Amino acid sequence: MGHFWIEDGETILFIGDSITDCGRRNTEMPLGNGYVRTFSELTTARFPEINITYINKGIGGNRVTDLRDRWTDDVVYHRPDRLSVKIGINDLHSHLRSVDGAVSPELFSETYESILDRNRNEVGCPVLLITPFYISTEHTLDTLRGRVKSLLPKYIDIVEDMSVKYDTRLINLQKIFEAQLMHRDAESFCPEPVHPNRAGHIVIADALLDELSY
Fold first, then answer.
1. What are phi and psi of 123, to 5 degrees?
2. Domain, as residue range, for 104
3. What are φ and ψ of residue 55, in 5° steps?
4. Distances in Å between the alpha carbon of 104 and those of 10, 27, 67, 77, 191?
5. Do residues 78 and 32 make contact, with C-beta atoms less than 8 angstroms apart?
6. Is residue 6 assigned to a domain?
């Protein structure tokens, strides 16, 4: 059957923004109806002999500063055996729009480092980092979508740097979706560039299963 990053009897906790949340706090409790649930279902199908507990702690609209503020309650308290972090697109938008509490690339890096330090010191579990993404083919810089696409690599680079520094698993979702966009239009995966539809979430879940199986 092959090997899997998560072992029998272990718990994996997913933390992030709306893409992780996907209704897990209301009508779609407890895992949401996005990639977290799909990943749990694919894992069950692929590895029936492995019993895994899944915890979803995504909250829509969150930035990395929000993760920092709830890290004790939502991560440390649960002492997961594996941790997945997917954050960044709200940080980017806040910086681009200069809103209150905006998370610049510098603050994103500093805060991301602080939560990974806490995980290393207080939980000590292996980590998977998932980059932010933006599903659009826009390249014109005088559009909002073009400006987001131009700024996104800075945030992705920070996640990749964190992965090297903290020796984590890593999934670059932007590269994965750009490969998909060579064959299909953006709306095949996302009605707008941020929140994937069912097909988009399946792409994410499949990327997780691929990265974590060996």
1. -115, -50
2. 11-212
3. -125, 125
4. 35, 33, 15, 29, 27
5. no
6. no
Chain segment 56-82, per-residue pLDDT in tens: 999 999 999 999 999 999 999 999 999
| 132 inside domain | yes
In a domain, 2, yes or no: no
* Assigned token pair, 125: 């579990």
The residue among 188, 203, 193 whose CA lies nearest residue 35 is 203
Phi, psi torsion values for 88, nearest 5 degrees? 145, -30
- Tokens describing residue 53: 């507990």
Q: Cβ(72)–Cβ(15) under 8 Å?
A: no
Residue type, 139: H
What would the pLDDT profile of 95-153 be if each residue is shown by its tens digit? 999 999 999 999 999 999 999 999 999 999 999 999 999 999 998 989 999 999 999 99
- Contact of 94 with 103, CB cutoff 8 Å: yes
pTM for this model (two decimals): 0.97
Sheet containing strand 53-58, strands side by side: 53-58, 11-16, 82-86, 127-130, 169-171
